[in-house]
Design a protein that fits this description.
CATH topology: Heat Shock Protein 90
Distance between the termini: 20 Å
Organism: Streptomyces antioxidans
Oligomer: single chain
Structural class: alpha+beta
Pfam family, one: HATPase_c_2
GO molecular function: ATP binding; protein serine/threonine kinase activity
Radius of gyration: 16 Å
Number of helices: 4
CATH architecture: 2-Layer Sandwich
Number of domains: 1
Protein name: ATP-binding protein
Keywords: ATP-binding, Kinase, Nucleotide-binding, Serine/threonine-protein kinase, Transferase
Strand order of the largest sheet: 1-2-3-5-4
Shape: globular
Strand content: 25-35%
Helix content: 25-40%
Order of helices and strands: EHHEEHEEH
Length: 147
C-alpha cells in the first residue's frame, strides 16, 4: 500500500489595507522558504500584494483570505478571497496613467489566473509553475512541515 503525498497549505486572514501588506509578504515568503520555494517568493509576493491592493482600492477593503496551496506536482496556487463580487480585469493604461497596471502584473507573473465567484464574494486564483530544479526539495519540505 502506498501512502498518498500530502499537499502543503497555508492560510492567512488579513485586512486588505496598505498597512497589512508587509506582514502578508513576510508570511507568504516565510512559508515559501519553508517549502523550499524561496526562488519563487518575489513573484508570488508581488501578486499577493497586487491582489490585496485591488481588494482595498476596488472592493472597499475589509477582510481577505490569502492562501497558498502546494499539491503534489509542479504547481503552486495563490488564492485571495474577499467579500466583493467585483471581478478584476486586465487594463492597458496609457503611459501617463499612474494606476491600473495591477492585473497586468498578475497576468505577467502568474502562469494562469481566474476568478471564481462564491456565495460571499469571489476568489482570485493564480497558478505558478514550480521550476523543475526546486521539485526535489518537496520531500524535504514535507519532512519539515508534517508531523
Amino acid at each position: 500500500m502506498t501512502r498518498q503525498k500530502e499537499a502543503l497549505e497555508y492560510r492567512l486572514r488579513t485586512e486588505a489595507e496598505p498597512s497589512q501588506l508587509i506582514g502578508v509578504r513576510r508570511n507568504v515568503s516565510t512559508h515559501l522558504d519553508l517549502w523550499g520555494l524561496e526562488p519563487m517568493s518575489d513573484d508570488v509576493c508581488i501578486v499577493a500584494t497586487e491582489l490585496l491592493s485591488n481588494v482595498h482600492k476596488h472592493a472597499g477593503g475589509g477582510p481577505a483570505d490569502v492562501s497558498l496551496w502546494y499539491p503534489t506536482g509542479d504547481t503552486l496556487w495563490l488564492l485571495v478571497s474577499d467579500s466583493s463580487s467585483n471581478v478584476p480585469i486586465v487594463q492597458d493604461p496609457d503611459a501617463k496613467t499612474t494606476s491600473g497596471r495591477g492585473m497586468k502584473v498578475v497576468a505577467g507573473l502568474a502562469e494562469y489566473w481566474y476568478v471564481l465567484p462564491t456565495r460571499t464574494g469571489k476568489i482570485v486564483a493564480c497558478q505558478f509553475t514550480v521550476p523543475a530544479s526546486l521539485l526535489p526539495t518537496r520531500r524535504e519540505a514535507l519532512k519539515r512541515c508534517l508531523p
